[in-house]
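User: what does the whole thing look like in 3D?
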Amino acid sequence: MGRSPCCDKTGLKKGPWTQEEDLKLTKYIQIHGPGSWRTIPKNAGLQRCGKSCRLRWTNYLRPDIKRGRFSFEEEEEIIIQLHSVLGNKWSAIAARLPGRTDNEIKNYWNTNIRKKLFHNGIDPVTHAPHLDLSDLSTILNLAQFNLSNLLSLQTLVNPDVSKLVTLLASSLSNQENQEMLLNNHINTMNQSPNQQTQNCNSMHLSPPSSQPLDKANAVHENDEPYFFYHLVNFSDQTSLENVVTPFSNDNSVTLPNHSPQFTTQASENLSFSRPGFEV
DNA sequence: AACTACGGCAACCGCTCTGTA
DNA sequence: TTACAGAGCGGTTGCCGTAGT
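Assistant: Here's the predicted 3D structure for the full assembly of 279 residues, as structure tokens:
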């Protein structure tokens, strides 16, 4: 059973608002206040849907709206920080930015901030460093990442991760590292499940539960990006499912970052603050 | 000067949530 | 408890201005 339309759309105007329409709506709301949006267009003499009136008022005509460009130092930084916590909850973000609408923030994010973040190597969805696998040495040098531990963990997730292991190893320039990684990987494959679990515990991680494992497999079955687990310790005991990160098709890896600061327990040396944001 | 491509933004669409009878 | 209407929200579309050729 489909929903009935919010209003009878026959004969109702769509598209850009005229000055006259703006004036009618503004005058009506100034006198009566923003009450029932369904009745407002009729009472104000507008050939518009109530929904359209509400949108026009909240996004454009409201007197407390601050127009003009976002300030980099204040508003932009606040938006980025809030987005890293709230995600695409534009209304929640807008509630913390007086004078800005959710629509305005959403548009600004999509047209400006998202591109800037991506350009600066930051995944705009997770706010995590967005790294190119073709330069894996960057990962190692940057993070002093203990890949041998990563490998032992990855094998718990999905046998197909072995393919990834080979790819990772082959991309290393240092032959000694390659051998170390592959040897470690082989040793791990020969371990019992209990031993593998112990590996996880020693790295302060929970072993993969059935849920993320299923998720990883399900994704793979559809030839979607692989999933793998990162050696990330979340202070808020984030469930392992939240640590699962898509291994995207564009040959890049995104490290999860569900909080402004996170550390990898495996190396003890890796510590990210919120990634830098440069113009 | 004319055409094309692109970016920004206002507005719409459809779904979800919430209150009420 | 259920059905429905109204409101809110996030994603998407399409128009318009501008830069590039």
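In plain terms: Chain A is about 50% helix and 5% strand. The longest helix of chain A spans residues 102-119.
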